[in-house]
Amino acid sequence: MPHIAFLTLFLGLVSGPQTVRLEVDQVQSVRIEVGGRVVAAMKEAPWTVVVDFGDELTPRKLEAVGYDGQGNEVARTSQVLNLPRQPGEVEIVIRNDGGRPVSAQLVGRNLTHALPKRGRLSIDGKTLKLGRDFVARLPNLVWTHPHVLSAEIRFADGQVATRELVMEGGVGDSASSELTPVLVRATGSSDPATLSGCFAINGHDLRANALENPNALVIMVKDPDTHEISEKLRSFRHGPLSRERHKLPLGANTTARIVWPVVQFFRAAGEPTSALFEHSRDIDSGEGGIYWLLMQAFPSPRNVMQPEPFAEAVAVAGIASISRPLRRAVVVVLSKAADRSHYTPAVVRRYLEQIGVPLFVWSASGPRPELAESWGAVDDISTEEGLTRATARVNATIVQQRIAWVATDPLSALDVEVRDRCGLELASHHPQPVVATG
After folding, report:
1. How high is the mean pLDDT in each 10-residue block of the chain (438 residues)?
2. 80: buried, middle or exposed (CB in 10 Å: 19+, 13-18, 0-12)?
3. Residues with Cβ < 8 Å from 308, sequence gap 6 or more?
């Protein structure tokens, strides 16, 4: 039974040249495809190749396609890049003897490279004995009938990864029908009575099951050093900030999260490097308004006097904001600190638009027309009037948002079209801010 499995799992954001490793059994050649385009070919072990994913942060599918000696496709596996993934995942690697599956190995990968601690594997609901090497013998079954392999791995950091693989006729398949939440903006005075005919891809209608108004999440990316912003806010005419904890609140049913451009790297031999950013807990809107959020400093005693990758932090905030079906926005508060990101602001702006995340760019140091080409239009929050207007724009955008559950997969959902007659539009296409001069 031919089989291919990825040994390299890209659980975080990925771009540029990356090493891709495969486990291959009873396959004569392999082609690697990115977004449907062939980028590499292999005919022998080691089944390892370097793939250049380019400079953009593009959501797309990475596929490995296996062929027999006559050029017929006999195996295929895939993973989605630059969309939310679990912090831990597990692959089920099938090994054959004489053309028959005889064993299965669980291969776990973790965003922080924590090691697998224990695992579990079953077939058709029957638990298999799993060795310390996470390998289990498979029973002698009739493989022309479908069989379901269910796997679970627990990592040393407490993360749990699960996976199911359906084996039928010698082919593994993990595809399933699903509903994907799509963020839209209401443009009419009321929500549409029906979603029939509202959503399509390439002109073909998609079924949409519901239009919801869930809670909202606003992620704020800001400098860990609050000196610059605190001096500006204290100059506002309403007096000490200690009396303004609830000044300029976010809307009802909205939580906030602060992401600081303070990064920690996790490296392991032969694995993609992970970059995780320090962030706050989720803060309920009743705890404090925008004034209070802007004043929150980096809480750790670690030295934060390091290059601050603002744009990269915004990209991470963007993907975090779509990990749950919530209304959402990302606000980046630019400071005078230099941005030392791997990605340019323009790349990050395009990425957030692709994944459906409205981005608001604020400046506490006055108008920043020199940033228009990189960050786009910037809201000047150096005056109380400017900050009030900027806050109102974020709240107004979130109030108009809805979540539509559409019958497609998360990658295809990025190409969804919304028909005008339904009074909805994609929420990432929100009106761009004007440069506010206060």
Report:
1. 92 96 95 97 96 96 96 95 96 90 95 96 96 95 89 96 82 60 91 93 93 97 89 72 73 95 90 92 92 86 67 97 97 89 95 96 91 92 93 95 95 93 79 37
2. middle
3. 223, 224, 261, 262, 337, 338, 339, 340
- CA 146 vs CA 96, 124, 165, 232: distances in Å: 17, 9, 10, 65
Q: Assess contact for 229 and 335: CB atoms under 8 A.
A: yes
